């Protein structure tokens, strides 16, 4: 049976009070989102670099208590920030607090300021990717011996498109692959992933494909036809505008019901089309001012999903990892943390 379409929202834990973040989590769950995520950084990725910001894993534990249905996780947790055995124990604990709703997103890390300010060795893109591979093994082994055991096999999410190293790690460890690019790029990289899966004796159909929902939902059906079943949208503080999320949820419900997604909820569709694009938000982040759909300054605007690319040192948004335009960082953001 085909996987149903699912929707995730990344609530970026910056430029907001915790009360505002908690409210956004509860509003997202009320709207019917499937997965709520944050990111694992220590400083804002755009806007005021010294603005308000909160830590990832203590927040996830709070969300586990504050929510009832949604899955929870980081997009993604930095591989160099914590001893991997400790990370496994933390994940197991949040898994129990949430009643089995944690998704363990992990990545190699890229934001040098985090490393420098907190005393971690930044290394190189290659050394961080090697460390990620080592950490994934240690996380798996520690989860296997913890008492009590996790409530379920905790799903591991890995993001990136590097065909030689990253996709091999996806084949070996991931339950969810967060991919980047258009439908054609996804099809090519999916074929490479299938080759890695064959090499390790794994069915590629057991790995869910995830991607950022495109601006205005343009081309989203092509991505779904190419195999993506988990779509993510992002929003930042202090307002946490959920208009784009509402449009994405309407499309999800129509797609799962076999309806015409364009006409399922015209008002929500219009909201997705007129909201500022990820690229406009990125340009605004660089200049310190939010952007409207026309490119002019405005007081409030949805922000792009921000995530990492495991084989480069800068994040990206709305384009394939390691080949996409940076978005969401002060200079122009990671795809997801």
Describe this structure in words.
This protein is of the alpha/beta class. Helix content is 40%, strand content 13%. It contains twelve helices and nine strands. The chain has an eight-stranded parallel beta barrel with strand order 1-2-3-5-6-7-8-9, surrounded by six helices. Strand 4 (77-78), helix 3 and strand 5 (102-107) form a beta-alpha-beta unit. Helix 2 runs parallel beside helix 3 (84-98), helix 3 (84-98) packs across helix 5 and helix 9 (243-257) crosses helix 11 (266-274). The radius of gyration is 18 Å and the shape is globular. The two termini are 32 Å apart. Residues 262-303 and 307-336 have low confidence and may be disordered.
Strand content: 5-15%
Spatial gap, N to C terminus: 32 Å
The SS-based structural class is alpha/beta
Pick out the low-confidence regions: 262-303, 307-336
Count up the helices: 12
How is the largest sheet built, in terms of strand order? 1-2-3-5-6-7-8-9
Give the tally of β-strands: 9
- Report mean pLDDT, rounded to a whole number: 83
Instruction: Specify the helix fraction band.
Output: 40-55%
N-to-C series of helices and strands: EHEHEEHEHHEHEHEHEHHHH
Major beta sheet summary: 8 strands, parallel, barrel
Q: What shape does the CA trace take?
A: globular
Q: Give the radius of gyration.
A: 18 Å
Quick take:
Helix content is 40%, strand content 13%.
List keywords for this structure.
337 residues; 12 helices; alpha/beta; disordered C terminus; 8-stranded parallel beta barrel; 13% strand; 40% helix
């Amino acid at each position: 049976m085909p996987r149903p379409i699912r929707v995730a929202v990344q609530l970026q834990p910056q430029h907001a009070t915790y009360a505002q973040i908690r409210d956004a989590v509860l509003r997202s769950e009320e709207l019917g989102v499937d997965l709520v995520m944050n990111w694992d950084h220590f400083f804002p990725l755009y806007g005021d670099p010294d603005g308000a910001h909160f830590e990832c894993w203590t927040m996830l534990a709070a969300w586990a208590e504050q929510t009832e249905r949604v899955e929870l996780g980081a997009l993604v947790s930095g591989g160099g920030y914590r001893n991997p055995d400790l990370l496994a124990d933390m994940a197991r604990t949040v898994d129990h607090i949430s009643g089995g709703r944690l998704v363990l997103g992990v990545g190699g890390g890229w934001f040098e300021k985090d490393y420098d300010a907190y005393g971690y060795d930044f290394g190189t893109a290659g050394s961080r990717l090697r460390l990620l591979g080592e950490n994934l093994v240690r996380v798996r082994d520690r989860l296997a011996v913890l008492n009590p055991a996790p409530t379920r096999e905790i799903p591991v999410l890995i993001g990136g498109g590097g065909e030689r190293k990253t996709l091999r790690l996806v084949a070996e460890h991931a339950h969810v692959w967060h991919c980047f690019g258009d439908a054609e790029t996804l099809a090519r990289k999916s074929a490479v992933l299938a080759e890695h899966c064959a090499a390790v004796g794994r069915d590629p159909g057991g790995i869910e494909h995830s991607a950022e929902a495109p601006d205005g939902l343009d081309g989203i059906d092509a991505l779904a036809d190419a195999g993506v079943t988990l779509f993510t949208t992002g929003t930042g503080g202090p307002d946490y505008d959920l208009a784009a999320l509402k449009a994405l949820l309407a499309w999800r419900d129509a797609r799962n019901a076999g309806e015409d997604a364009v006409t399922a909820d015209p008002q929500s569709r219009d909201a997705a089309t007129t909201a500022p694009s990820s690229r406009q938000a990125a340009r605004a982040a660089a200049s310190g001012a939010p952007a409207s759909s026309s490119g002019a300054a405005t007081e409030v605007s949805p922000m792009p999903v921000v995530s990492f690319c495991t084989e480069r040192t800068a994040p990206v948004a709305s384009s394939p990892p390691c080949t996409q335009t940076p978005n969401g960082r002060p200079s122009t953001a990671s795809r997801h943390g």
